[in-house]
Amino acid sequence: MSGSQRSLAKGSPAPGPVPDGLIRLYSMRFCPYAQRPRLVLAAKGIKHEVVNINLKNKPEWFFEKNPLGLVPCLEISDGKIIYESAIVCDYLDEAFPGKKLIPTDPYEKAQQKLLLEHFSTVISALYKILFAKKDNQDTSELKLQFFEKFKAIEEALTKKNTSYFGGELVSMMDYMIWPWFERFPLFDVLEFLEKTPRINAWYKLMLQDPAVKETYTEPDVLLAFYKLYSQNSVDAADYGLD
Predict the structure, then answer these.
(1) Is 31 among the residues known to form the active site?
(2) For 66, 133, 164, 185, which has the most beta carbons within 10 A of its beta carbon?
């Protein structure tokens, strides 16, 4: 991987053409959606550079890359652009050699997509907890609602009876949901891992995965970032950099 960790903000010049032999990922160091393709890039060993975007103070030219102004966004050497995290990850797996993360069996592929659809409701429940915490509201009921949705993930892994969601090796589903598990301390739901033994075992295995280790951010750093981000600080994206 190449590229500077510091984020580009309003007024920053646009980067030049993507260097030969690389692809470019527009990202943000603490964004869970942007971590998805970073996990896939690391897992597949794809040569790339990362350009971080300040999401609180976006450079004007970035909207030419992605009209939504969101990360992740992938730029290929011939100027082609892909965005939306799931679509970016699918492209990376299909377009580049190395181990395949998406199941080849159509039924297994469909099952992962169905489970990922359900996980989007888990993500929504997590952010409801986070926003309530920010407003100093009681989160007890929201945590119960989260756990009701979360239990389906435990049931899916129990039914499959494998170490990972795709079998005995890490697959796309594992990487697609991992970023939110990394942020469980931020959402204050780490206790629920003890109530889901299969997921807890999976969680411990994922912590040892090379791609997870490469993209991992310590909980105290995430907490400090979010404190700044929730205060609308334009410096949040570069928290921890000299």
Answers:
(1) yes
(2) 66
